[in-house]
Write a structure and sequence with these properties.
CATH topology of the largest domain: Growth Hormone, Chain: A
Protein name: MFS transporter
Domain Major facilitator superfamily (MFS) profile: 219-416
CATH architecture of the largest domain: Up-down Bundle
CATH superfamily of the largest domain: MFS general substrate transporter like domains
CATH class of the largest domain: Mainly Alpha
Order of helices and strands: HHHHHHHHHHHHHH
Shape: globular
Number of helices: 14
Radius of gyration: 21 Å
Number of domains: 2
Strand content: under 5%
Membrane topology: Multi-pass membrane protein
Organism: Streptomyces tremellae
Subcellular location: Cell membrane
Length: 416
C-alpha cells in the first residue's frame, strides 16, 4: 500500500493540496480580471492563454534542464515561486497597487513554474517508486487531479463570492507553500544527475536529443501523437458544446453548467477505478477502449436536438459522463508506460518535447471546431471530434501499443 510509503505519501498529499488550490485560481484569476478591471471575453481569454503559452514555448527547454538537475529542488523552487507570484496579487490589492499588467504578468510567470513543476514531478516519481508501483502512484495522482477538478472550482466560486477575487487567490498561493513544506520532509536520496556540458551548443544538442528520443521510439511517438489527437478532440468538443447548447438547444447558462457538472462527476469514478481497469485489461487495450468510447461520446451529442430539453439534458450528461470517465483511466496508462519506457535521466527531455504537441492541441482544438462550424455546422464538429478521437486509436494500433499489458517490452524501451 503506497499510503504507508512515507515519502510518496508526503509528495502526494502536498500535490493534492496544490491541485485543489490551482482549481480555485481557475475561477479566481478570471474573476479578478472581470470584477476588478472590467475585462471582457478577449481579456479573459488572453489571461487564460498566458498560463498555457509556457507549455508550448518552454517545454522542450525546461525538459533539458530537468534532466541536468535534481528534481526535488526544482519542485521546491517552482512551489515557492508560485507562492510568491500568486501571493503578490492579494498583497498588491490590499495596498491599493494591483494593476492589470501585474495580473497578466503573474499568470504568465505562474505558467512558467507550472511547467517546471510538472516536468520535475513526472521525472521524480519513477525515482521515488518501485517499477511495479508506478501505476498505483499515477492512479493516486490522477485521483487527486480529478477530485480537485470536481470540487475546486465550486470551492473557488464560493471563495470569490465570500472574500472577493483577490483574496480568493490567497488559497492557491498558500496551497503551494503547503506543498513545499510537505516536499521538504521527503527523505529520498536522488541520484546525481548526469554530467552535462554547458552553453548554447550543448543545450541545442540536448534538445535535438530529446526530439530523437521521443520520435525515434515507436511507443513514445505513438503515445505522443495519440494524446495530441485525443486532447484536440476533447478541447474542440468542450468549446463547441457551449455554442450548441445555447444556439441549438436553447439552454440557459445554469442548465449548461448543471449538465456538464453532473456529467463530470464520473471523472472521480474513473480515477478510482483506473488502476484496476489498466491492470485487468492491460494498459494498451485500455487506451484503445477509452479512445473508442471517447469518439462514441462525441457522436451522441448531435442526437440531443432530436427531442425536448429534458432529453437533450440527458444526452449531454451521458456524453460528458463517458468522456470524463475515460480521461483519468487513459492518463494513468499513458503516464505509466512513458515512465516505464524512459530511463530516469531522459524523463525531462521526453516530457518537455511532448508538451508543445499535447498541450498545444488544447488551443488548436477550439480553432478547428470554429472552422468546421463555419464551413458546415456545430453538429458536424462533434462528428469531426469523434474522427480525431478514433485517429488516436489508429496511432495506438500503429505503435502496437495495444499489446502492452503490465510492463513495457524491452524492444519498446528507450536505451539507458
Amino acid at each position: 500500500m503506497l499510503f504507508r510509503e512515507r515519502n510518496f505519501a508526503l509528495l502526494w498529499s502536498g500535490e493534492s493540496i496544490s491541485l485543489l488550490g490551482s482549481e480555485v485560481s481557475v475561477i479566481a484569476l478570471p474573476s479578478l480580471a472581470v470584477l476588478v478591471f472590467g475585462e471582457g471575453a478577449l481579456g479573459v481569454g488572453a489571461l487564460v492563454a498566458l498560463q498555457w503559452v509556457p507549455y508550448v514555448l518552454l517545454g522542450p527547454l525546461m525538459g533539458v534542464f530537468t534532466d541536468r538537475l535534481r528534481r526535488k529542488p526544482l519542485m521546491q523552487v517552482a512551489n515557492v515561486a508560485r507562492f510568491v507570484i500568486l501571493g503578490s496579487l492579494p498583497l498588491a490589492a490590499a495596498l491599493g497597487h494591483l494593476t492589470v499588467a501585474h495580473l497578466y504578468a503573474a499568470a504568465l510567470l505562474k505558467g512558467v513554474f507550472d511547467v517546471v513543476f510538472q516536468l520535475a514531478y513526472q521525472a521524480y516519481l519513477p525515482q521515488l517508486l518501485a517499477r511495479e508501483d508506478l501505476i498505483d502512484g499515477n492512479a493516486k495522482t490522477q485521483l487527486s487531479r480529478s477530485t480537485a477538478l470536481v470540487l475546486g472550482r465550486s470551492f473557488g466560486g464560493g471563495l470569490v463570492s465570500w472574500l472577493g477575487a483577490a483574496r480568493a487567490v490567497t488559497a492557491d498561493a498558500v496551497s503551494y507553500l503547503v506543498s513545499s513544506l510537505a516536499l521538504a520532509f521527503v527523505r529520498h536520496q536522488e541520484p546525481r544527475p548526469r554530467p552535462a556540458q554547458r552553453g548554447v551548443a550543448a543545450t541545442v544538442r540536448d534538445l535535438k536529443g530529446g526530439i530523437a528520443l521521443t520520435f525515434g521510439n515507436r511507443l513514445l511517438r505513438s503515445l505522443t501523437l495519440m494524446a495530441t489527437f485525443g486532447n484536440m478532440a476533447v478541447s474542440l468538443t468542450l468549446a463547441m458544446i457551449i455554442v450548441f447548447a445555447y444556439d441549438d438547444l436553447g439552454f440557459s447558462a445554469g442548465r449548461i453548467g448543471l449538465a456538464l457538472g453532473v456529467g463530470a462527476v464520473t471523472t472521480v469514478v474513473g480515477a478510482v477505478l483506473s488502476r484496476r481497469i489498466n491492470e485487468r485489461l492491460g494498459m494498451g487495450r485500455t487506451l484503445v477502449l477509452t479512445h473508442a468510447l471517447l469518439g462514441l461520446a462525441f457522436v451522441l451529442l448531435p442526437v440531443a436536438s432530436a427531442a425536448g430539453k429534458g432529453f437533450a439534458f440527458t444526452v449531454i450528461v451521458v456524453s460528458q459522463a463517458i468522456s470524463s470517465f475515460t480521461t483519468p483511466v487513459a492518463n494513468v496508462g499513458i503516464m505509466t508506460m512513458i515512465q516505464k519506457a524512459t530511463p530516469p535521466q531522459a524523463m525531462g527531455r521526453v516530457g518537455g518535447v511532448s508538451l508543445p504537441l499535447v498541450w498545444g492541441a488544447n488551443a488548436v482544438g477550439p480553432l478547428l471546431g470554429s472552422a468546421v462550424a463555419a464551413l458546415a455546422s456545430v453538429r458536424v464538429t462533434f462528428f469531426f471530434a469523434a474522427v480525431l478521437a478514433w485517429c488516436a486509436v489508429v496511432w495506438i494500433l500503429l505503435g502496437s501499443v495495444q499489446r502492452i499489458t503490465d510492463d513495457v517490452p524491452e524492444e519498446l524501451r528507450v536505451p539507458a
